[in-house]
């Protein structure tokens, strides 16, 4: 009886327009959305990992490298092969990798969880190399702080900051000459975008430098060029493209008034120099390294690339 | 037989594969390039979930590929086999494998930031499926006449009456991989259990099939699989045993069920050498009993997955009707809300109206209807099932997708650096062992589009780069054509005298065969050390067979390195037919190398002709003419074109 009475009293009290009830009501109305927001926002991870962009012509071994790094730590535990079989990519994909933050030279094969080392995580974003699909991959490089969607496959998803660019080339294909122009042209586009990024800064602060690694892959093959030769070939070819572009026709849509602005924008590297070299890009905070390696086979392996990436994330 | 079966993601990683005969990876790479990236086939690749029978088979270098694509997860299932073979059950295999794989690994496939999918256990599912289909596919099952009607080419062998003799005949031919001759006693109790188990599945799928048949015709072809398999089982029992020809009915029942379920290696081996019956029998006894339990369950699991997939499909086709007033009202409000806020999963209905608007927009930009419809269909297919981002309206999403789609279409596959190509031909590197020769370019097109004008623009560009150019007057038909070129040459000579270029006209007057003139011009240029030969041709109507046929001879005689077609930006729907006819006019081994779109300055934003011709031929646009002066020739910039096409002024 008394319980019923108290309940009844409570019910009545809750419906009377007293200050307490109004206060409670208001507090609930205002706080509930905020509480809900915090509840949901903590449930989803807020921090986005930095990413390393993997570019290059088709068939260079980008996807294979991605799978190698991803499967590396598990290699000892599972019997699966170190790399997966791959085909031409159509969409970008990203994998989450972790590098030993104390000692970046740790092999990608070591399982950091077992070692107990502090791990630094990053995303390796593999992109399709087909010419028709390139535009999307390099579209974001021009902005001062280049970002890329962490999960490009599905829409929505946090943007992740690009820390470094790995440009993969097939050193064996460069030897016979046909692949060199197309490879260099892609690299030219990328470097030009990075250079424009330097000009696009606002304020006095220069954008953070963007390291670029030219990874000369497939050195396990007999016909492959060594890294030094890859570098000189690419530099020579980039220089040739630079000259050809300056002599070539204008792009459609470029008006006369934009001519002057465009002239300096399209010249890659420092002005006045006869030959192009990667060192000229230092001026624009783009330092380029060329390191040889191989994803599969008995070549030098991929350890050097891993170390390079590890030092830069 | 099947050479390879691969399951790969759109990001290029092979998740699972089975290889029977090694196939060069270029086969699958070319398949991806042609079907998915360049969309060369008439049916674009982005078809979600269409059964393999509806996707046109892709043929490459003695191999035929049957494939299906799961768009939501981005997975391609592809089966490769020799084109010589007719494998009637291949579509079914691809479809069933898709259903099973997606059913089993859906959760793993949707994980972000990884390419690893643990599917080592998928081997047994595949084996089970393959065996079932091989056995059921080779023999025409008298009890499932429906299937015979539906499948394209059933019956490598003529249907024969269902008796013992038939079983013996067909067995070795149709399924050499499995082991029909090995007799395998098992425990009777288990097999009975299994019969009971298999019952409901068979019934269920039969019901599912009935449902399907009443529902829709296209869906039913994919659904026939489980039914057929379930039915084929009892028949299999009889056949297996008959091959030995010793057993009574009861034994037959047991044996029958063990055979279709084997997968362990030793048993497959046993199948490979059927002569050693005794030995094999003894050695595999142990594993077989164990293997049977596991695999029988597997068969059931597979069937239930397939039945599930069927049920889902039929459910999906059914629930199109709105569910009551309140429900529809609520969802409508929710839909409106989501239109504004975003995060909406797009359906065909949502897109329909917006896509119509986009189509109209493209038509207004002078894109041919054919191209506009195909572009919109492609975008629609791409967007169905996609979730919009936060605060993103449907129209914005479509705009974005259309931009990507147009960029992809207009971007050339290979580099189009003309100067570099000329250099490679006229002064080849020492290692290439090629003799230097003049680079030959010819220009074709309909009357009055500006062939001679664009030819002289290109000539001007080449002269600026200090080449020695010979212009051949290939228009031996229209009076005044040669004189017109002579004027151009005189002007160009004066303009470029300081720059160091050199130009000459090669002409043989009127009435001569154009192909012969072109050939003479090329040999003359080689003698005199010219770098580039530019050949002008007579304008011709693209639907005049007599005039077009002479182009083939022309291509054979002059051997041009590049054949460019000039197209007007002014022309509308006819541009598609023009591009197609000219592209096909040079014989089987030759096609156009590029387009020059002239008179772009006269159309403003309406540059749809670009899209129409690239859509029709997959040949890239090289240059764009934007004015009357020699210098008014531009490289084609994809970004510029896409901006113009999508701008709504």
TrEMBL record, chain A:
Its main location: endoplasmic reticulum. It comes from the Eukaryota. The chain crosses the membrane at residues 21-40. GO terms for cellular component: endoplasmic reticulum membrane. One of its GO terms (molecular function) is GTP binding. Signal peptide: none annotated. Keywords: Endoplasmic reticulum, GTP-binding, Membrane, Nucleotide-binding, Receptor, Transmembrane, Transmembrane helix. This is Signal recognition particle receptor subunit beta. It comes from Triangularia verruculosa.
UniProtKB/TrEMBL annotation, chain B:
Residues 228-239 have a biased composition (Basic residues). One of its GO terms (molecular function) is signal recognition particle binding. InterPro entries: AAA+_ATPase, Longin-like_dom_sf, P-loop_NTPase, Sig_recog_particle_rcpt_asu_N, Signal_recog_particl_SRP54_hlx, SRP/SRP_N, SRP54_GTPase_dom, SRP54_N_sf. It is a peripheral membrane protein. Residues 620-633 form the SRP54-type proteins GTP-binding domain. Pfam families: SRP-alpha_N, SRP54, SRP54_N. Residues 166-192 have a biased composition (Polar residues). SMART domains: AAA, SRP54, SRP54_N. GO terms for biological process: intracellular protein transport; SRP-dependent cotranslational protein targeting to membrane. GO terms for cellular component: signal recognition particle receptor complex. Transmembrane segments: none annotated. CDD domains: SR_alpha_SRX. Belongs to the GTP-binding SRP family. Heterodimer of an alpha and a beta chain. This is Signal recognition particle receptor subunit alpha homolog.
């Amino acid at each position: 009886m008394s319980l019923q009475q108290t309940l009844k009293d409570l019910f009545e009290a809750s419906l009377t327009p007293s200050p307490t009830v109004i206060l409670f009501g208001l507090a609930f109305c205002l706080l509930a959305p905020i509480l809900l927001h915090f509840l949901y926002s903590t449930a989803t991870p807020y921090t986005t990992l930095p990413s390393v962009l993997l570019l290059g012509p088709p068939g260079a071994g980008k996807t294979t490298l991605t799978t190698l790094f991803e499967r590396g730590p598990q290699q000892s535990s599972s019997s699966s092969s170190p790399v997966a079989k791959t085909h031409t990519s159509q969409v970008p994909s990203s994998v989450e990798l972790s590098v030993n933050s104390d000692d970046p030279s740790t092999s990608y094969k070591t399982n950091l969880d077992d070692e107990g080392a502090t791990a630094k995580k990053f995303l390796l974003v593999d992109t399709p190399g087909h010419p028709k699909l390139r535009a999307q991959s390099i579209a974001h490089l021009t902005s001062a702080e280049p970002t890329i969607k962490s999960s490009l496959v599905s829409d929505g998803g946090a943007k992740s900051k690009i820390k470094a660019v790995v440009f993969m080339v097939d050193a064996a294909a460069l030897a016979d000459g046909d692949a060199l122009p197309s490879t260099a042209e892609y690299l030219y586009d990328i470097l030009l975008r990075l250079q424009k990024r330097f000009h696009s800064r606002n304020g006095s602060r220069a954008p953070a430098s963007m390291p670029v690694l030219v990874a000369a892959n497939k050195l396990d093959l007999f016909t492959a060029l060594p890294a030094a030769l890859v570098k000189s070939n690419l530099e020579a070819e980039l220089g040739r493209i630079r000259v050809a572009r300056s002599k070539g026709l204008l792009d459609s849509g470029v008006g006369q008034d934009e001519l002057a602005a465009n002239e300096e924008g399209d010249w890659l590297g420092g002005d006045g120099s006869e030959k192009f070299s990667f060192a000229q890009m230092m001026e624009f905070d783009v330092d380029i390294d060329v390191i040889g390696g191989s994803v599969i086979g008995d070549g030098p392996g991929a350890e050097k690339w891993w170390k390079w990436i590890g030092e830069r994330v | 037989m099947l050479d390879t079966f691969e399951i790969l993601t759109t990001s290029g990683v092979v998740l699972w594969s089975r290889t029977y005969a090694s196939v060069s990876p270029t086969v699958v790479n070319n398949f991806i390039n042609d079907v998915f990236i360049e969309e060369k086939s008439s049916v674009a690749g982005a078809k979600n979930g269409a059964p393999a029978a509806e996707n046109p088979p892709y043929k490459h270098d003695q191999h035929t590929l049957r494939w299906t694509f799961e768009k939501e997860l981005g997975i391609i299932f592809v089966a490769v086999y020799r084109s010589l073979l007719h494998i009637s059950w291949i579509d079914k295999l691809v479809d069933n494998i898709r259903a099973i794989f997606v059913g089993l690994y859906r959760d793993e496939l949707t994980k972000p930031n990884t390419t690893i999918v643990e599917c080592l256990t998928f081997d047994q599912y595949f084996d089970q499926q393959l065996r079932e289909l091989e056995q059921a596919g080779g023999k025409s099952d008298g009890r499932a006449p429906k299937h015979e009607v539906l499948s394209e080419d059933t019956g490598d062998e003529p249907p024969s009456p269902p008796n013992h003799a038939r079983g013996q005949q067909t067995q070795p031919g149709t399924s050499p991989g499995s082991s029909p001759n090995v007799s395998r006693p098992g425990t009777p109790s288990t097999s009975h259990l299994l019969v009971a188990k298999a019952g409901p599945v068979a019934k269920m799928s039969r019901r599912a099939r009935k449902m399907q048949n009443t529902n829709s015709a296209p869906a039913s072809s994919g659904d026939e699989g489980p039914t057929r398999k379930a039915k084929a089982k009892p028949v299999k029992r009889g056949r297996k045993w008959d091959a030995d020809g010793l057993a009574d009915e009861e034994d037959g029942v047991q044996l029958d069920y063990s055979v279709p379920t084997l997968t362990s290696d030793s048993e497959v081996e046993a199948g490979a050498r059927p002569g050693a019956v005794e030995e094999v029998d003894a050695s595999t006894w142990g594993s077989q009993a164990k293997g049977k339990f596991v695999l029988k369950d597997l068969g059931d699991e597979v069937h239930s997955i397939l039945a599930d997939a069927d049920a889902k499909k039929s459910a999906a086709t059914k629930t199109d009707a709105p569910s009551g007033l309140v429900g529809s009202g609520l969802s409508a409000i929710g839909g409106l809300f989501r239109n504004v806020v975003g995060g909406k999963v797009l359906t065909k209905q949502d897109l329909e109206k917006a896509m119509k608007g986009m189509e109209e927009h493209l038509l207004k930009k002078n894109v041919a209807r054919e191209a506009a419809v195909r572009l919109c269909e492609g975008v629609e297919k791409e967007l169905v099932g996609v979730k919009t981002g936060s605060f993103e309206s449907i129209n914005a999403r479509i705009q974005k997708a259309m931009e990507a789609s147009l960029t992809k279409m207009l971007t050339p596959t290979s580099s189009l650096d003309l100067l570099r190509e000329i250099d490679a031909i006229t002064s080849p590197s020492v290692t290439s062992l090629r003799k230097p020769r003049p680079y030959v370019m010819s220009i074709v097109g309909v009357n009055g589009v500006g062939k001679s004008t664009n030819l002289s623009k290109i000539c001007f560009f080449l002269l600026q780069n200090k080449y020695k150019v010979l212009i051949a007057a290939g228009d031996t038909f229209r009076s005044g054509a040669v004189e017109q070129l002579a004027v151009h040459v005189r002007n160009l000579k004066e303009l470029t005298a300081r720059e160091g270029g050199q130009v000459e006209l090669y002409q043989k007057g009127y009435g001569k065969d154009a192909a012969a003139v072109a050939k003479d011009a090329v040999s003359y240029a080689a003698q005199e050390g010219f770098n580039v030969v530019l050949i002008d041709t007579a304008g011709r109507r693209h639907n005049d067979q007599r005039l077009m046929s002479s182009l083939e001879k022309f291509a054979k005689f002059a051997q041009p390195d590049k054949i460019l077609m000039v197209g007007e930006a002014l022309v509308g729907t006819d541009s598609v037919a023009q591009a197609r006819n000219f592209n096909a006019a040079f014989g089987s081994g030759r096609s156009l190398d590029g387009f020059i779109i002239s008179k772009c300055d006269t159309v403003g934003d309406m540059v749809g002709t670009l899209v129409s011709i690239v859509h029709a031929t997959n040949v890239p646009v090289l240059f764009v003419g934007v004015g009357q002066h020699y210098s008014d020739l531009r490289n084609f910039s994809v970004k510029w074109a896409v901006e113009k096409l999508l701008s709504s002024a």
